[in-house]
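User: For my dataset I need records formatted as: sequence, then structure tokens, nothing else. Please produce one.
Assistant:
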Amino acid sequence: MSQTVPRILAFGDNVVDCYRDQKRMFPGGNCVNHAVFARRFGAETAYAGAVSDDAAGRAIRDAFLAEGVETSLLRFLPGQTAYCVIATEGGERVFVGANLGVSIIAPSPADLAWMKTADAVHTGRSSHVDAWLAHFASLTRVSYDFATIRDEDRIETVAPHCFLAGFSGGGMSRDEAQALAGTALRHGARWAVITRGGEGALLVGQDGIYEAPAVPMQPVDTLGAGDTFIARTLVGLLRDEAPETILRGAAEAAAQTCLSPGAFGHGVPMMVDLSSALTIEEIYARTRPVPGPEVEPAAAAYEKRATKTFS
């Protein structure tokens, strides 16, 4: 493991966040955001995932190129790039609708080869690759964003593979957040980070509980703040930084993210057909998880026929 330049692969979900009132779209999605933020924090990062050769997909690619994220594993498939329709109310994001497009994919042999050379891979619930986590963990450390999942059965399945388990704990009390982190560690996670919005955050490991208050500010857009926090936490852990240093840096970086629209900028005019938008509930009801490695060869063969890569 590099002490100064961690090597991180972000695998999975992507979207363009479409702000209808502004008629602008911003590259985003948990794994896209993580790749960009970890790169800004000094890591070497790559993103593995799929978009389409449309305005939205090119916006994601162009943002990666501008930010120095490696794009050799960025593929595009026939169809539509994933999108999310966003409204903002008092600086807080409100999801109006979304479509996952072509973003839900299995890892390719090239993805797994890069992962094997990495200090960590980051993915999460929105990537729908839980069946691959054991294999990921056999190659490198796993950072997993549970988002708002608090179901212990789901945590029990995922946490054994996690170096870092991240949770969005807005509205949770300190005791509830501590209990949630304890659940993740009890089931095998090495570290758990719980972000609680304006109430600060907890980082919990086998040797203790560490806390940081939120940095006071007036938010313009909170989109991406949690992803910022988790990315800074992972980079800090891989660098063996003190937990107090990690939390302080993560809180400051998350506050900065809230001061501009979109998760990390790079907004462009919105050119997305929103007629296929579904509710978040419909998406999670309809989306099938990616099959695991035991059935991967057939899926990989199909994707090899259908896929090309950005240059």
